[in-house]
Amino acid sequence: MPTYVSGRSILRKLIDAKDWESIHLYLSPYFPSRFLCAGYLMSISELAAWTLQMKKICLTAFTSNPASLKFFQDKMKYKVDATDPGLCEPDEPPCGYRILSKIRA
Asked: Model's pTM, two decimal places?
């Protein structure tokens, strides 16, 4: 059974966590309105990162889900990161995912 929490409680937990270097959030592909939820979670994550004076947010998107790539690049304005395996190792076969990032303005 899913647990529903408010954006404020997620943001508070993110800001209160003092010793983390990264946060991993996973959305089930079966979750109804997952893109609405993904946008909401990413907005909260961005707010927490900028509040904590972080300079960049990265995410991993599977190439097998082109809708998620389109969503993050077009709607959320994420760009292919310099650490993306396709850029770092262009001679290697595709790895099945892309690393996207957003830099603090």
From this structure: 0.69
